[in-house]
Prior knowledge:
Blueprint: H1 2-34, H2 36-41, H3 44-74
Helix pairs in contact: 1-3
Amino acid sequence: MRTTILAWSTISGLVLGLMAGLLVFAMLVLGGELAPAVMSRFGARARGIATFITLGLLPLAGGVLGWLEGRLKLQ
């Protein structure tokens, strides 16, 4: 029972973090289409870092927050 609560809380946090990351990524892509002059200065390296943050770190942070929420549910 305890493990399932922690697992589901972590998975739900990962999913919410992924959805937030996809939303931020979509806003960056849309901003690049609306303001191409700004995005041309935003080099390929910066695009890679932004992709890593939005699709890597945000889901990870969501998973950690979900796990902490699961720990609070168990107390």
